[in-house]
Amino acid sequence: MSGGLKIRVKFREHSSEDERRQVLDSLAPDAERLFPEDDDPQLASIYVAELANPEAADTLAALKRSGSVEFAEPEPPRRLHLPEELKEE
Amino acid sequence: MTAPLQSDVATFQAPAERGLEFIPGQVVVRVHREALREAAAAESVTGPFELLAREAGARSAEPVFAAEHDELAGLTMLQVDESELSSDLLRRVAASPAIAFAERVPARWLSGAASPDPRRNRQWGLRAIRWFEATAPDASAVTVAICDTGVDEAHPDLAGVVASYDHQDAGSEDVVGHGTHVSGIVAARANDDVGVAGVAACRIAMWKVFPDEPYQGNFYVDGTRFLRALDAVATSGAKVLNLSLGGTQSSQAEQLLFDRLERAGVTVVAAMGNEHDHGNPVEFPAAYEHVLAVGAVAETDRRSPFSNTGQHIGIAAPGSDILSTLPTTRSPYRPDMSYASWSGTSMATPHVAAAAAGVAARHPDWAPAETKEHMRTTARRLAEMGKQAWTDAYGNGLLDVAAAVAG
Predict the structure, then answer these.
(1) Closest CA–CA distance from residue A70 to any residue of chain B (Å)
(2) B61, B113, B163, B214: which one has the fewest Cβ atoms less than 10 Å from its Cβ?
(3) ipTM score here?
């Protein structure tokens, strides 16, 4: 796991490519589509990015305020449910 | 360390049918009796064993007969890594003047006799879910998708079971073994004279979403890979998805993918989590809408002490001391190979996933919501539930696969 904050941004499906690029260029220029091959509007409107600390929280808040963004969220950690036999004491 | 036992592999069926000529991972070495007596020959005796340890991971060398059995003294059985064993290595071992011979252990069988899976009597979970009473439909066309640590496709008990394995740029080896254990619970080949029986005779599609290296003592998915795997499952034709993973934060992006899976006809089952004594948190994806959350019970029919409870639980299944398959290769992340009994809601969940595959085979036109509802309504109410139809420890009760797949 890296040190930055990984985020997911979903734009409203009616937002244009220009609108999306404008938001991302100013806030998360390295963002890329989560499903680059998919032209389904729902999936094609989701982007992922890694934000450098310590500005990450402010950037995430700014993304959420954007009118063309449906949601922006940090990537939640998902871990393996380790069997009891493998847990360290 | 649980080494494969001779009784775990083909002993009753002709090798021509099984394709198995030798007991995997077993070597017998005969040390000359004279060499055993002569202290001067010590190095010529230990050298070959050290060679086997160095090149084939030999361990637990045990005399086949007691020392007083002078006629048969020196016969020694060793467990080795099957993948490292070669004829050349055995020739080099036998080249020592102290060694009479070194050979693999041939498989032996009884003509005409039939044997179920040799370790099945240790699978208490099959009895608990009334697997033996079930009239299972043909589920060979049903695929259960699993997002996990990978799978050992070469495991003898999973031969022909793995329909697809997507590990992308990660290695194919399942170093943790978790995914192989889950896979065995779902679909280890039954009645094949090998090891254990899975709950359903279905196929498995594995997506390896975990890295091979832990982070701060646990394994975390790459979020992008995980979401892409969920999307791939939705379009794969799989009827069931098993998720033995989780975390306390919810995600709108994940919920969106689970909505898609539901619309695509995939029944999703997820583990409640093993942190009951560490705050008993609500965990996702188990707590998402459209996901059947599975808790664990022990052989006593009581909740496994580690199993989380909560308002989102749908059903319970065996999750303590569950015997299943492990990779046949060694790993620093687990003490066992081939088979072991593990405990966790991760082990309960694949019982339900496999049962869902059976339901999908019986009712191919059912939507996931119908499948989940059916398994909940056919679950067995446990004594610990009192008179209640649902509790936050057991959901609607213990999975009853016989009732779930009944015609």
Answers:
(1) 10
(2) B113
(3) 0.92
